Design the sequence.
């Protein structure tokens, strides 16, 4: 017992240094002015028309990308589960393999594919077809989000489906339920923990991203993550950047609280 306790110390120290301390720094700068006095003006900057527009656009794109990921991941997870493979390691490797490549490099690769002189438009030009405006659009950002975050939706859903015993499905069919009713009354409710986990794991990074919008959106599509990044990196205004970060954190915590409420098997529900 004491050995397990000692083994947890490195993780506790790591969390304290790289999570708790930076969080308190953000809170400090978010609630103080440049002179060090307490203020709420940094949080109130979210009501600025530009910041508010970027926040709503971030929410819109993150919701759309999350829905698309769910619509793609759930049927795929059902198909993989129906294959009844003896080993799950091969399936897991397929989805983790692209993630071995750096996140930035994967996104830059799609920039080269979607840009005006990229692979797609070059092919269209070869066919004597007009070029498409793919890069620097909200659609390109959604595509980048779906591509990068889809594995985070597939894995938890597939994991939940793999835990469903065939006895439940067979019992439902023995009682006269068809394929659709079996899915609706048995499979879907039992897989909701994976769905909730997947939605959380896709929605949160989609809402806070700035790299994807920087690369695939350019300066034409500005999300709230880009504005926060500019405050820290370009303007060097930690107070404004921290205030906007805290507002964004509230949206994230609210979404996680709502999703956890519907996750009947959530292992982290005691947090709330």
Sequence:
């Amino acid at each position: 017992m004491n050995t397990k306790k000692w083994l947890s110390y490195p993780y506790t120290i790591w969390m304290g240094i790289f999570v708790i301390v930076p969080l308190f720094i953000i809170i400090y700068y978010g609630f103080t002015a440049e002179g060090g006095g307490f203020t709420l003006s940094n949080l109130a900057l979210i009501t600025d028309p530009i910041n508010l527009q970027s926040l709503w656009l971030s929410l819109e794109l993150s919701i759309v990308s999350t829905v698309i990921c769910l619509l793609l991941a759930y049927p795929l997870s059902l198909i993989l589960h129906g294959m009844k493979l003896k080993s799950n390691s091969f399936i897991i490797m397929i989805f983790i393999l692209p993630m071995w490549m750096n996140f930035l490099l994967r996104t830059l690769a799609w920039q080269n594919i979607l840009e005006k002189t990229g692979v797609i438009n070059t092919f269209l030009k070869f066919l004597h077809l007009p070029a498409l405006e793919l890069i620097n659009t909200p659609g390109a950002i959604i595509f980048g989000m779906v591509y990068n975050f889809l594995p985070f939706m597939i894995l938890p859903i597939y994991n939940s489906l793999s835990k469903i015993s065939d006895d439940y499905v067979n019992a439902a069919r023995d009682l006269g339920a068809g394929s659709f009713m079996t899915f609706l009354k048995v499979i879907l409710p039992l897989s909701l923990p994976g769905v909730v986990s997947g939605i959380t794991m896709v929605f949160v990074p989609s809402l806070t991203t700035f790299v994807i919008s920087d690369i695939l959106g350019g300066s034409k599509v500005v999300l709230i993550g880009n504005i926060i990044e500019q405050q820290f990196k370009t303007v060097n205004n930690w107070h404004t950047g921290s205030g906007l970060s805290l507002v964004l954190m509230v949206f994230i915590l609210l979404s996680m609280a709502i999703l956890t409420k519907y996750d009947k098997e959530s292992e982290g529900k005691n947090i709330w």
Summary: The mean pLDDT is 88. The two ends are 28 Å apart (CA to CA).
